[in-house]
Amino acid sequence: MAKQKFTVEQQAILEQVKQIAAGLGETLAPFTEVVVHDLRSPRHAILAIHNNLSGRNVGDPATELGLARIADDNYPQVLANYANQFSDGRRAKSTSIGIKDSAGHYFAALCLNVDVTMFRGIASLLEQFSGTKGEAARESLDPASAEAIRERIDKFAVNLATTPQALRTEQRKALMQKLREEGYLDLRRSMDTIAQHLGVSRATVYNDAK
What we know:
The chain is of the alpha+beta class. The chain contains seven helices and five strands; from the N terminus they run αββαβββααααα.
C-alpha cells in the first residue's frame, strides 16, 4: 500500500509530537522507550524511536493498537499503564496516545514502554531489606502518634502530587488546618514531629498553624 501524504495540519502536529517524544526520551532514559507511529502507513509505521528497548527500528509496522485506531476513530485516545511485554520476555508498562487531526481522524500515535524489570528487582530488594523475622519484641523506638502524624502528612502531600518537604507555605498552612481539625495537633510532641517531617523549623510550623 502506497504511503499516504500528511496534510499540512497533520504534518505540523506531527512535528510537535516528534519534539515531545524527543524530550520525553531524554527525560525518561534509560528505562522508557518512546515511539512515534505514522498510522497512515501501517506497514512502515515507526517514524522515531528513543531509548530503543524493544529492538524495533524506524520503518517497522504498526502494533495491534495502531491498527485498531486506523480502523476506528472512536477507539480510546489514551490507554495508560497497561501490562505489556518485550520480545525477550521482559515485562513492560505501556501507555499509548492516539493523535487526531481537526477532523477527528487518527493519523499518528505516541507510545511509551517502561521496562519494569529493574524496578521490580529493586522493590524485591527493598522488601527483603525492610522485612523482619521472629516474634515482635516489646520495644518502640518511636511513639505511635508520631507515625500517625507522618502518615497523615504523606497522604496530604500525595494528594497534591508532591512531597512533604516540597510543600509551599500556603499548602503547609492548609495542612496544619487539617491536622488541627482532625486532632493531630493534640498528640504529644506533634509540632516536633511535623517540623521534622516537613524539613522546617518548629518556628515555621507554629507560624503556619496560626
